[in-house]
Amino acid sequence: MFTTNEQDSRELRWIEKQLAELTQRIWRIEKRLGISDEVFLNERSLEESRLEPDTSRPKTVPASEASVSSKIPERPLFETLPEPIPPSPSPISISEPTYPERSHAPSPISAEANARSRFEWEALVGGKWTLWVGSLAVFLAVSYFLKLAWNDISPVGRVGIGFLGGLLFLSGGLAARTRGERWFSEGLMGSGLAIFYLSTWGGVSYYHIFLPLSGMVMMEAITALGVGLSLWLDAQGLIILATLGGFLTPVLLQSGGNTLALFYYVTLLDLGILAVSLFKGWRSVSWLSFVSTILLVSGRALSVWTENERTLYFAFSSIYFLMFLFVSSFHSLLQNEETESADLLLFFADTFVYAVLGYKIVTPLLGEHPALFPVALSLFFGLVTLLVHLAVPRNRNLKLISLGSALFFITIAVPIELKQTWIAVGWSIEAAILLTVGIAVKSHIFKGAAHIVWWISLFALLIKVPFVEPMQHMLFVNERALPLLISVLATAWMALFTALRKENKLQKMYTVYVFYPVVLGGWLLAQETFLEFSWVKAPTPETWEAGAIFFIAALLAIYSVVIFALGMFCKESVLRLAALTVITFAILLPVVNQESTTGWRPFLNLRWFSYVTGVLSLFAIAWMLKKEKSILDESEEKLSMPMLIAMLLFALWGMSVELYETFSWMEFPSVESWKDGAFFAIAALCGLYAAIIAHLGFVWKEKAIRGFAICVEIVAVMLVLFLALSAADSGWGPALNLRFFAFGIVTVSLAYLAMLAKGSETSDFSLKMVPVFAAIILGIWGLTQETYESFYFYRAHFGDHWNRAAQMGVSLVWTLCASGLLVEGMWKRHPSIRFFSLGFFGIIIIKVFFFDLSFLDTSYKILSFGGLGVALIVISWLYSRYGRKMFT
Questions:
Q1: Contact assessment for residue 844 and residue 815, using Cβ atoms and an 8 Å cutoff
Q2: Are 524 and 476 in contact (CB under 8 A)?
Q3: Per-residue burial over 224-261, b = 16 or more CB atoms within 10 Å of its CB, e = otherwise
Q4: Upstream peptide bond of 669 is cis (omega within 30 degrees of 0)
Q5: Is 135 helix (H, G, I), strand (E, B) or coil?
């Protein structure tokens, strides 16, 4: 209510203050929740249009209100305080609009879902898991109970207690059926059945209370009880347990004497269980019965030897095959609908197992015509296809898998009968023909058959062709090469024809058809090259294997470049991927080749030829990747730099190997020390190589190349340090030796890296200073090593205490190095080098005062302390003379 008296005015200002605070809070909440202001702004404009401001009122705001208003956001609901409406004859009552309160509490739905989720987990852990764990514990308890020989209880009593326990569990499950969760009662009844099985087994095999036949009858009765309960209670878990118990009965009772009785038992058991699974639609039970039948029957079938046993096993295996084949198609045939994927999988698994097991059993019975069995299977599945087509033409899935099985078995019948490796040629050609016809007439059946035949041809090539010894000295047309060549050509045609007809549905197989001939073609080149070297024994009878491997590497490198160029021309990424695979193999061959190359002249041999060819091939591929980025896939656009890095690494490896072999061939510098010399030379090569590569990396502004150069430099440093510490007494003279040469080259290369980093645009202090300090430390290390080795070389002039003179020399060398570094730091006004030199002087002082002083002779002490003292005095003078200039 708006009035003109003072009290109402104060109340109005208080209400406005509260509204401002509420506006601020609402704005913050809406901002956090991401709620748009459009709706509220529209309502605000409508409300303000009804209220016309009165300019007669002075706009004075108390300090308390100003402090509150300063906290209001950019677009508050009240930018200025509303003016009062002029007084009216009668008081106007304005009721405040009420808005629904926005609650932060979770919604009832989410709360209910969370509660339900917590309940489900709690029920799972506290209910089902505890039940099954408890049942397992009881089962184990009964097991140990039956096993322990208790003197107070007779065997009959022990088994009787076991049956009583099973009966109690079974009764408890039946009683709990209507008083609790269903899974609880099923778990109790399942435990009771398990205890029944175990008690029966104990009575037959452990205590010998029952005869084996009686025990089998009892277990069959338990199985029937489980099946009956599962039907009555619609409990799938009970029939699963009954199935396991039924198939374990012959194993537990070891009733393997009467084979015919065993087969009858398994047949009846399968018929009962499969009938229930079909009636209830429990596919998992069918699969369990299938797997159990295989495990029980196949183990015995593979050990059959007599003709009568083979006939018996084959007859019952055929019965089982037909039973599960019928189960896999029963529902679809009954309801005249498509066979589901799970049933098709059972159809395929049943066919595959029967084909393998039946062929193993029946082959000795067929004599010289083992192909009769796959031919019979082909005729059978052809008949199945015809019946399905006539009876249920809508069941396309079953018809296709039956037809595919018929084509598969008639295809494999030919090589089984002929037993020749060259039949893979026929398979390859057949696959090409089938695919060509299938694409031409747009027949999925022919396309699928082509894929199957092609995989069969590949399998034949893998298991047969590598073990064939060529009888004719003709490349590519001998007994081993011809099947591979035909397979390459046939598969290449399949890929080409698929691409020309733009069969997108064959994309996955198209990738295989493109990739396979390229890789197999490379294998064929390698195989025939090796064969040719074995015939001519080149370059020498002792080293022809090494020569063949190196030449193969060079040949594959060139081959990969050609294929990669073809892939770039055809814009085919699979071709390029295959080429990269081949060149990877090509550059690995020389690296892993361990064959002898004794007698080869350095750099004029097939080994060096393979490395040069590999480097050029890698460079060619990297250049093509860099030049033609527009036609590359996204995954290939970044491959040019890795290929360039691989080329640099391969070139370094090749030069290192050839350098090592050069020292071995020349035995330089001596017969005893050529290995140390070779490794020091390789370290120097790495340092020089790193400097060159780093220069290119900084010129081209390529971080990857600079990183590679740094890695090579690290290898050079580690190698020279390791060799300096572990090399044996080489007898080298001071300074003029490969050790000092390697230290010098690596130190200079580090200094060059530091110079390149200093001249670059990088602002990374570590990149600029780490090479500097690494060069300093390595140079000092090299001088120290050479100083000590020099005293060792002239140890005859210093007597038995030559090592004391060596320590004095080391101290002097360190003093000179530290002095030179300090002068350099002062001259260049580089504080880091000055700090390093001062720290180094601290180490020298500790060495001289606490190490040299303990054992040096007087003359050596004079030289050591004198040199250090003079150096320190000179340094002090330098700081006093030029210290101010360094900091101005």
A1: yes
A2: yes
A3: ebbbebbeebebbbbbbbbbbbbbbbbebbebeeeeee
A4: yes
A5: helix
Q: For 728-755, what is each residue's pLDDT tens digit?
A: 666 787 888 899 999 999 999 999 998 8
| CA pair distance 347, 341, nearest whole angstrom | 10
C-alpha 199/C-alpha 119 separation (Å) is: 37
The neighbour count for residue 751, using CB atoms within 10 Å, is 18
Are residues 844 and 868 in contact, defined by beta-carbon separation less than 8 angstroms?
yes
Q: What is the pLDDT of residue 582?
A: 97
Sign of CA dihedral 266, 271, 273, 277: positive
pLDDT of residue 119: 43
Rounded to whole angstroms, the Cα distance separating 691 from 709 reads 7
Instruction: Provide the token pair at 365.
Output: 């019975």
Tallying the residues shown for the chain, one arrives at: 888
Cα 881 from Cα 209, distance rounded (Å): 113
589-593, Cβ contacts within 8 angstroms, sequence gap of 24 or more:
589/549, 589/550, 589/552, 589/553, 589/556, 590/549, 590/550, 590/553, 590/614, 590/654, 590/657, 591/653, 593/546, 593/549, 593/550, 593/553
Q: What are the helix (H) ranges across 504-639? A: 507-536, 544-570, 573-592, 606-627
Residue whose structure tokens are 């069918």: 286
Average pLDDT, the chain: 77
Q: What is the residue whose two structure tokens read 């009035």?
A: 3
**Strand, coil or helix: 740:** helix
Give the Cα separation of 401 and 178 in Å (integer): 46
Contacts of 307 by beta carbon, 8 Å cutoff, 6+ apart: 364, 365
What are 23's two structure tokens? 């506006």
Q: Are 329 and 398 in contact (CB under 8 A)?
A: yes
Helix axes 236-253, 259-280, angle to 10 degrees: 170
| 0.85 surpassed by pTM | no
Cβ-contact 85, 57 below 8 angstroms: no
> Is the sign of the CA dihedral 594, 599, 603, 605 positive or negative?
negative
CB-based contacts of 466, cutoff 8 Å, min separation 6: 480
Distance CA 704, CA 693 (A): 11
Q: Determine the Cα–Cα distance for residues 72 and 63; give it in Å rounded to an integer.
A: 15
Contact between 348 and 401 (Cβ < 8 Å): yes
pLDDT tens figures, 467-522: 778 876 788 888 788 888 889 999 999 999 988 887 765 667 889 999 999 999 99
- Provide the token pair at 376: 């019979």
Residue 569 half-sphere exposure toward CB, CA atoms < 13 A: 6
Cβ distance 272 to 227 under 8 Å?
Answer: yes
Closest by alpha carbon to 475, among 543, 423, 536? 536
Tokens of 198: 């175990």
Cα of 250 vs its chain's centroid, Å: 44
Using CA atoms, how far apart are residues 385 and 368, in angstroms rounded to an integer?
A: 29
Contact 621, 636 (CB under 8 A): no
Residue that wins the pLDDT comparison between 418 and 852: 852
**140 vs 146: CA distance, rounded Å:** 10
Which one, of 254, 247, 194, 255, lies nearest residue 220 by Cα? 247
Tokens read off for 188: 């109790």
Q: What is the rounded CA–CA span in Å between residue 821 and residue 829?
A: 11
Contact 746/738 with Cβ under 8 angstroms?
no
Q: Using CA atoms, how far apart are residues 728 and 732, in angstroms rounded to an integer?
A: 11
Tell me the three-class secondary structure of 813-854, residue by residue: HHHHHHHHHHHHHHHCCCHHHHHHHHHHHHHHHHHHHHHHHH
Tell which phi-psi region holds residue 719, choosing left (phi > 0), alpha (psi between -120 and 50) or beta. alpha
